[in-house]
Amino acid sequence: MKTTTELAVEIISREIINSSSPTPPHLKTFNLSLLDQIIPSIYIPTVLFYQIEKMDSAHQISPRLKKSLSETLTRFYPLAGRIRDNRLIDCNDQGAYFVEARMDCQLSDVVNEPSVESLHYFLPDDSEDRGFMLLVQFTIFNCGGIAIGVKVSHKTMDASSLSTFLKSWVDSVTESPAVTCPELIGGYLLPPIEMPQPPPSVVATDKCIARRYVFEAAKMASLKAIAAGGRAVTPTRVEAVLSLILKCIITASRLRHGSPRRSLVTHSVNLRKRTVPPLPENAVGNLAWYFPVVLDGGETELHNLVAKLRNGLKEFCDNTANKLKGYEGAAFLLHSIDPASQLGGATQVDSYYCTSWCRVPIYETDFGWGKPSWVSVADMFYKNNILLKDTKCGEGIEAWVCLEEEDMAVFERNEELMEFAALNPSALS
Known about the structure:
By secondary structure, the protein is α+β, with helices and mostly antiparallel strands. It is built from ten helices and 18 strands. β16 (385-390) and β17 (397-404) form a beta hairpin.
């Protein structure tokens, strides 16, 4: 593809999209939950790339997107508001930010050889820092293909919530008779407390490198069989892929430091199906927490890593998930907010953060011109961060791994990793 310096973006227009109907007075104040409060002030950045044959079609899309976004904001009214004091959203209908742009290249130039450095070109940037909860960029390529970049405040949404928002937006564009409406949870389960705003970035990114690996569906059965280690229970895709990635990272760390080091792995969990009673799928908010797994430096057998991850999840679901309610849940969260406390202040410990978007149906986002050719994350690359998401077919896994330069130099040469994962292949393959 073109290098980062060769890519050129022309901004065609910038505007604020307001809700199609004003927010009623009784909904003007929306309380954050404690989970929302804990999240730093960052965005969830996602880019959806679409292949469209006719240039005229792409130009006709923008007005439809803006009109339907206005209608969708009425249902997701906190996204048109502004956060106050890290405690509530003032639902004042100040609107979302919408940018229309043109990229002087072909869609294939970007998706055939994806570049971490280029993805930010497809995301809107509010240089005036006006506190938008939602920002959208609609980008047209020379070939007529398009990209829709969405940045939504992590203060109000997790990945599952983003998927619900996109589905509701699709329903408006396509004039669906059954429009997806959100169940806005807010502070219902975990009321907000007085607490300072967390820093905007939780983990340093200096001297870190992000790499994209694709585990194709055709190799998944073989990897899962090896990760099972002859045991009766077959690992899930996420368990198998994450265990292999962790094994390769732990090996890289041992080679770098000259001796084994303990690792603390924190893995996010969707709470919706794990509370009693379960929350609906369209529940919107930060409805995820994590479970910690402590690994000894010499623990690199795949089946052992799978067992550790599975047992950690089971322990969380059995003993923790349903506690995350009310003031008792708040006390638990505040006590467990630092996962390193699990190690009693031990030094020489490597911490890794794992998030899975697998089975989050963002690839189903069809505004009427087909499903996206590629859905990518962007600007979420923090030190020792691992993000897993589905490939387009839904059976493979795309893994984004961010490590320090020294660890990545060893990690990316791991032969076992290269046996099952392709480094940054074409997103159209």
